[in-house]
Amino acid sequence: MCGIVGYIGENDALPILIDGLKRLEYRGYDSSGIAVCDGDKVFSVKAVGKIAELEKKINEKNPLNPPFEGGQKITLLPKEGEGGFNIGIAHTRWATHGAPTEINAHPHHDCTGKIWLVHNGIIENYQQLKNHLLEKGHKFISETDTEVIAHLLEDLYDDNITETLKKVLKLVKGTYGLVAFHNDEPNKILVAKEGSPLVIGLGENETIIASDVSAILRYTKQVIYLDDGEIAEIKGDGIKIYDANDSEVDKKVNEIEWDMTQAEKQGYPHFMLKEIFEQPETIINSMRGRYIVEEGKAKLGGLDNIADKIRDIEKIIIVACGTAKHAGLVGEYMLEEYAGIPTEIEYASEFRYRQPVIDKKTAVLVLSQSGETADTLAALKEAKGKGVLTLGIVNVVGSSIARETDAGVYNHIGPEIAVASTKAFTSQLTILALLTVLLGRQRNMSLVTGKRIIEELQVLPEKIKKILDTNENIKKISEKYFSMKNFAYLGRKYNNPVAQEGALKLKEISYIHAEGFAGGEMKHGPIAMIDENFPSFFISPRDSVYEKNISNMQEIKARNGKIIAIATEGDEKIKETANDVIYIPKSLEMLTPILASIPLQLFAYHVAVLKGLDVDKPRNLAKSVTVE
Prior knowledge:
The protein is an alpha/beta fold.
């Protein structure tokens, strides 16, 4: 994995491929490569590092036209006025099988150099297939699982690459988002999907394939989303799509809702900072048209078609990964306290490996910004296999999870580009609060309580703006602590998950070791780590556990630990214990996680900037994790 771009059409493929790769840089990667075909020869270049390195190598390609590893000759880029390549594939790789080297970078090819492909996902039985192919004389170059597919295509090729790919995919086990072409069939490009996202953009006299719509938007907003098991054969004169049973299927053409300006920095130094400052607007977008104040009710249109089923829910299991899991932990408190529904939160990556007690009155709710998170998608399919109601909260329209769930709610926050999630987290919390009102009002929640929650949700955007206005103060605090090697984040009840999320943000982008703890657990072991060089971040608003938080602070202070506190405006008492205080406006206890997360995001951001790190693309991470 990580990013795929493919092209077939009347225009020069190469600049479109490079542009697409640049728009996928935010997903995280360690190497890149391209292969373009002009109907006669293939030009391929790979590079380790940033896309700029790939561009440099393209421009420096040896003019003596040397052979590449497989023996196939390459041609130079066409000179101005000579026309361009009309078919090509490109890839940014996030290493799974094999180190990040040029040899392991995509695209990969077969022994003849005629079959080329890029691939996201993991082929689980690749070693078995590779051993078989080695015995037959195939010569492998890379350490990757992907190269096996190229050699399988070569081994089974019968003068029709489409039919050959159908046979090959029946032999492989695992996940794939795959784009391939054969140099002997230069007017055709193939796309296949199983558990890894791919979208086909329909332009004028051209088709662009990508793993993310951001690589397509400059050229078209008309897209087709492939479902698992489907193969698309794309030619200049049209597209044919086949399902897993080899039946040709008609696919709906979707209109992408957002535009290029939403995917650009708009004057901010980093996407992450832009997305933090977008949160007053994204909270509004997540709520728009979804509540009725005078009735104290929430109206989630995506759940209308299952209204009777959600009335019968007696248990909810929330399944998610990373930041989305922390949102789910807050949702667990909301749903149990206000809707009266027993709720569990599970790591998506572990859900399939235990035996959860579920029945027909259990609902499984999955959270994912991208809608393509492999572990979450696998957990969703496990739940569907057990016949339970499945719900989703997803940002990307048309994503795999959005299509697989029985019903769900979109975030409507536009693209989130920075790898470290910010606006998606607060949007997920907002929608979970609305879901709590919807389910609670069906049960025992009073009109007064429902109105109070909705009225407080309405004023959250203005309160977030007040917090954002303190950005310079948060930056000054980060300057005091950015050289520290370890951090503890502590919170109780609703803000225990926020502590975990704050620690994750710091780890993700600053590479500082940080751990989030329930405040009461500190004395059960972790306090042994505390000294003057191990600061603690407390999320301690004036709520039902405020005094407990103060007690925990005293325990840290007694051991010479430095304390940064997030507190409610007007709380002067906390200054007696904390070394530094960041204030947030007062809100309902269940909604303080939305406000408290903003300073934690800004603190992590400023620490990473002070350390000179790549905030938007932290090392080893990918925006959409599409392998298990």
